[in-house]
């Protein structure tokens, strides 16, 4: 009976050693969340069917020393919007639609939808771009 307990202890100890070795291996190396997502997508072949795949980027000489501006320009040129900008446009459209509604049911549902999108928007946007939730009573007519 002692042998079985020792065997299971040995296996558990070996498993812990393996986990510790993995942690030690990765301890010196930092990979941020975005890099991990991009590397995983590359391995899965997500970038292979894109138009312009394998062709060099057209880099603006004025932006070579500013990678953030170059990133924004490349995204804009390829019609890629960050999620929070897309949500902002959807919120703006819903707000415009809300002004035309007369039914209390439609107003309530739209305000609920807007507020859900505002919450999602605020979690993903820079602090300076955050929005306030819509107050239902502002749009209900007495």
Fold blueprint:
Layout: H1 2-27, H2 33-44, H3 67-77, H4 83-100, H5 104-124, H6 136-139
Helix pairs in contact: 4-5
Short structural summary:
With 142 residues, the chain is mainly alpha-helical.
Which properties best describe this structure?
142 residues; mainly alpha; 6 helices
Overview of this structure, please?
The structure is a single chain. It contains six helices and no strands. The chain has 142 residues and is mostly helical. Helix 4 runs antiparallel to helix 5. The N and C termini lie far apart (80 Å).
What is the radius of gyration computed over CA atoms, rounded to a whole number of angstroms? 26 Å
Q: Largest sheet, described in full?
A: none
- Integer average pLDDT: 78
Number of contiguous helices: 6
SSE run: HHHHHH
Number of distinct beta strands: 0
Distance between the termini: 80 Å
Low-confidence stretches: 16-24
């Amino acid at each position: 009976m002692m042998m079985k307990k020792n065997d299971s202890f040995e296996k558990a100890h070996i498993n812990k050693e393996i986990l510790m070795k993995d942690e030690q291996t990765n301890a010196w190396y930092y990979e941020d969340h975005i890099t991990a997502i991009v590397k995983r997508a590359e391995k899965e072949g997500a970038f292979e069917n894109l138009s312009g795949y394998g062709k060099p980027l057209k880099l603006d000489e004025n932006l070579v020393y500013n990678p953030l501006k170059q990133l924004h320009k490349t995204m804009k040129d390829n019609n890629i919007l960050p999620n929070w900008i897309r949500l902002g446009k959807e919120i703006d459209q819903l707000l415009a639609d809300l002004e035309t509604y007369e039914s209390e049911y439609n107003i309530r549902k739209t305000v609920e939808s807007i507020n859900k999108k505002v919450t999602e928007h605020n979690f993903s946007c820079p602090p300076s771009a955050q929005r306030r939730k819509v107050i239902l009573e502002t749009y209900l007519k007495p």
